[in-house]
Amino acid sequence: MKFIHAADLHIDSPMRGLASYEGSPIDEIRGKTRLAFVELVDLAIVREVDFVLIAGDIFDSDWKDYSTGIFFSNQINRLAEENIEVIMIAGNHDAVSQITKNLTLPPKVYKLSSTKPERVILEHLDTEIIGQSFHTRSVPDNLVLGYPDGDPSLFSIGLLHTSLNGRPGHDPYAPCTYTDLASKGYQYWALGHVHNREVVSEDPWIVFPGNLQGRHIRESGSKGITLVETSGHEIQSVDHIELGSLYWQLVSISHSSTGLLEEVERKLVQSMKPSKLNIIRVELTLDLSSSLSLDHENLQAEIYAIANSLDNIWIEKIKFKSSEPSQLISFNDELLDQLKSEFLSMRSDVSAYESIREEHKQLSSVSREVFLELTEYHQLQEIIDESFEIILDLIKGTDS
């Protein structure tokens, strides 16, 4: 038996906040979550898998129109035509109460219930898949406690959208432990929600495949799916297969003003991943005298021009930092430590995120041009990080 385990497709994620400059491929970038799913379907057909599991967050949010659903329906119909079954659950982004538009699913495509754990038995494969969708965006309860024990006569798979006992940068939804999962007697747990690939355990197998396509700088590195092969009730292989045509990464450069542009070009070329559209954040750490003397606006334009001259590179953002403490302002170390502590506290306060998001949502409804959509915890963290850096630069007496 062979199956694909995927999660966190985030189809039609708006990818807001991208820097726009002459030659920047923003429209192309925003279409990449769809392309990544097409790649998944292609792979499933070529590898002749028996079924595909999707562990939540298929969609990034409620459909703006039916084109999102039509695209998804067209792709899963391709799988149905090849007798490849699809079993999926909803996560926090596409919770049942959040998605107001729907299309009829084709045969052999199952979206599991959000009211209680549901079991799908694939008799020809002696396999059962048990899972439960999110009904609401926030699920503080341990859903695993309601999952039935595995049937010893079948190969048992659990499908769950969860942060387990907590993962950095991810909301603590459907919390549970290794012991909770292992106690059910399943051979494989197909998890979703955490966007970095992680093999939590090999006994039993507990896997986060990571998301299908990176959507921002915090989702850098290789993304894709997990391909599982079994023989009888034994798992033979669990392999990561890279998909997605965007590759996000951070390029950090510490340099004086002399030869800076040459160093930037060298690092950009060095960081390129062939056959991908490379989306790069450039972080320049300059000594204080260089930071004060350089025209940051001109330097940004020069770097954008370099990127446009290279194939398959786009600059997501350019950040400036100073490597030296200012001699202009004396700042008490104790106060600086206290400031840092306050920012770290705000950054880790997940419980405050939901209330901030709701307030921000109301402001966004007044003016979307002024208030970007705040849909994920990492966005709040990034705002806090950048605010802290701006304050530090002001303390140092430098420009950011």
Any overview of this molecule?
With 400 residues, this protein is of the alpha/beta class. It folds into three domains: 2-242, 4-Layer Sandwich (Purple Acid Phosphatase, chain A, domain 2), CATH 3.60.21; 246-324, no CATH class; 331-400, no CATH class. Helices cover 31% and strands 24% of the residues. It is built from ten helices and 15 strands. The chain has helices at residues 26-30, 32-46, 67-81, 178-182, 260-271, 288-293, 296-309, 333-348, 350-366, 377-396; strands at residues 2-6, 51-55, 85-89, 109-111, 118-122, 127-131, 155-161, 188-192, 198-202, 205-208, 224-231, 234-242, 246-255, 277-286, 313-322. The strands form three sheets. The protein has a six-stranded mixed β-sheet, covered by helices on one side. It has a six-stranded mixed β-sheet with strand order 5-6-7-8-10-9, with no helix packed on it. Helix 5 (260-271) links the parallel strand 13 and strand 14 (277-286). Helix 8 (333-348) packs antiparallel against helix 10. Mean pLDDT is 84; it is low at 325-330 and 367-371.
TL;DR of this structure?
The protein is of the alpha/beta class and 400 residues long. Helix 2 packs parallel to helix 3 and helix 8 (333-348) packs antiparallel against helix 10 (377-396).
